[in-house]
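Please, structure for the following, as tokens.
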Amino acid sequence: MNPLTHFRKMRILPLLSLGAIFALVTAAHAQNLYVSTQTRPSHAILEFRPSGTQSTYGSGLLFPRGLAFDSIGNLFAAETVQPDDHSTGRVLRFNLRNKVSTAGSAAYFFFEGLAVDIAGNAYVMANDQTSPTGASTIFKFTPDGERIVFGSVPSQGWGLAFDSAGNLYAADGGAQTIYKFAPNGTRTVFVGPSAFAEGESPVGLAFDSNGNLFVSIETFSDPGADSIVYFTPMGVKSTFATGLTFPRGLAFDSARYLFVAEANAIPDGDILKFPPGGGLPAVFASGFGRPEFLTFGPPR
């Protein structure tokens, strides 16, 4: 099937003044796209050049999810081992020579979104596998390996993203809420259930340089009915794109293009590339497995 077939029902709404990427790490030099995927027969992190040329950066992983770079070029990745028994979430650190080490872990948690602050602390959304409500904890792993409970959300959490002031935003899909955590961990509601229709769940998060928070919305039941919305810093909502299929990770490149991972798009997942200001997206890459989360960083 032509990869663009599923766009026929897509409605893209224009966006004025779509800003360049806000990133805490190597924004001005970001070139390559890194994608966590569930490929066959193993799960991996793929690296894409701007031309779309694909290579495997990390292989042999288990359920890799969130990705983020720190200020010196280390790539952090969230993964979960033994997910069907007693799952253990791990944050992996890949140094500039692609040597991997464990930055932190937590038993009985499934790790999802990940973000790194300017001091090199890694924050991960950890879904509690023992909680009857699916409550999630946000762990903070320091460069020294210390694990700190930074905050929590009441149900299944997904993406994390920092704004330019150092506030951490967290998507709680089950509660249909996006929470805002101040640097000291104080939690407030940025937008609540009234911002979403019945059955919609916020999943992926990414900021543009104007401070607008872009959010991927999944229904988990109706392929082609998912969307991307954005909120101004004051919480005013607009729709950016509709007609998507399981959009998850979001990332802006330095040229202001928005990249979106469609986890279950035909035939096997794809990455969409939206032009600055909105418009019909191109298929940047497809057919390589199920993409989950995205980040931009230097060539490795």
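The longest strand covers residues 54-61. The CA atoms of residues 80 and 170 lie 19 Å apart.
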